[in-house]
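Tutorial handout. Part one gives the primary structure; part two gives the three-dimensional structure as tokens.
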Amino acid sequence: MAKSRAKKKREHLLRNGGRDVLLSRGGAPSFSTHERMTKSKKEILNKKKHRNPYDHTAFDDKDFFVPTKAA
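Part two.
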């Protein structure tokens, strides 16, 4: 693979007596960056921020009674 322009500049500075800029970089983070998971479909559907208030299929309608007219 080819070297990036920034890496070439860093190596040039080191060869010509400059300071090592890699020493000023921070260490590894205190949290793991490899164990993150995306939300499941169920978690996305249960999110309440953009839920439609007029969607009546989202809850149970068993106790709801609509009288019908007798013919």
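Part three, for discussion. Helices lie at 5-15, 41-45. The CA atoms of residues 14 and 20 lie 6 Å apart.
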